[in-house]
Amino acid sequence: MNKFTYFSLTAILLAIACVVLTYLGYHYAAMGLGLVSTFLAFAGGMRESYRWQACTYMATCVIYGYSIAPSGHYLLAISFLFLSFIGMFRVTFYKQMALTKFQWLEPVSFMSGLALYIIGNTMEGTGWAGWVFPLPWLAGTVFKTFGVLTDIKEFAALGKLSYGAKVGSPAPAFSLPDQDGNNVSLADYKDKRHVLLLFVRGDWCPTCHIMLRTYERNKEKFEEKNIMLLAIGPDPLGVNKDMVHRLGVDYKVLSDEKQEALKSYGMLFQGNSPFAKYKEGVPLPAAFLVNMKGTIVFSTDPRKAGEIMKPDAIFSIIEKIS
């Protein structure tokens, strides 16, 4: 059962209070609570990335728009709905959209939302408050739009790259600490277990949360085939420990702060992301299946990030190596 986070639950309560205050005529108080509720709902969605949290964020945005012009034509409510798609809609439907499909979504959502924001404030005579109160939220929306478009551009450039770890080649060795500080080496499992390596971009990446939970739901199938799940990311132990607890993941997440394993598997891109800064580059999401002999027998394509969300593709390979 999906748990309510402090951020999301508080956002829901504030959104309800916003509606009540709007109805009672406390205009500025309603707008203030509505603004805070949108930020909290977004923070909750980024921390755990459940679909209901995305819906909560979009609902709080609509309520906030309504609180600015409750007796008008609801153009601001519709405006904020369009703008709420940015960042959340792609995450919610990542299996279908990945990062490079429907690239028009964010620009169209932003331009439509911005146009309705201007038209709504002009037509409905909201006064200075209707223009000024949403500015912090709009600034965040501009940043999200820029970040998503930058990420899409970076992934589009991956088609020109080649990667060091190939199917049929020996898996590069590594020795990294897990979320509890225990050292884990790939060599620990040689001649004992197959290993499925999941490379994640970091706790800042909401689609990585979804990916980790997706493989958690299929954990028993992997265990039946004697496959050990290991996730590898660039975050430090403390961040990984919090993430594992928060997401309810019951397998090891290894800390590759120096990004040596990420680099040896070719899972680093020398680009820029406005969402996270790492010394060696931006991590790429991918899965590698390593058999007991230490050979890579399957990998997803980091240029097609949606592939890692479909563990079913691995099961046919599992049958051949078990």
Protein architecture, described:
The protein contains 13 helices and nine strands. With 322 residues, the chain is an alpha/beta fold. The chain folds into two domains: 6-158, no CATH class; 161-321, Glutaredoxin (3-Layer(aba) Sandwich), CATH 3.40.30. Strands 5-4-3-8-9 form a five-stranded mixed beta sheet. β4, α11 and β5 form a beta-alpha-beta unit. α1 runs parallel beside α3 (51-68), α3 runs antiparallel to α4 (75-92) and α4 packs antiparallel against α6 (105-124). The two termini are 32 Å apart. The relative contact order is 0.11. The model has no long low-confidence stretch (mean pLDDT 85).
CATH class division of the largest domain? Alpha Beta
How many separate domains? 2
Alpha carbon gap, first and last residue: 32 Å
Largest sheet: 5 strands, mixed
- Assign the CATH superfamily of the largest domain: Glutaredoxin
Task: Supply the number of helical segments.
Answer: 13
What's the gyration radius in Å? 22 Å
Which blocks of ≥5 consecutive residues have pLDDT under 50? none
Which band does the percent of strand residues land in? 5-15%
User: What structural class do helix, strand and pairing data support?
Assistant: alpha/beta
Any idea what the shape is?
A: elongated
CATH architecture assignment name of the largest domain:
3-Layer(aba) Sandwich
Number of strands: 9
Q: Would you give the CATH topology of the largest domain?
A: Glutaredoxin
List the helices and strands in order: HHHHHHHHEEEHHEHEHEEEEH
Mean pLDDT: 85
| Strand line-up across the major sheet | 5-4-3-8-9
Helix content: 40-55%
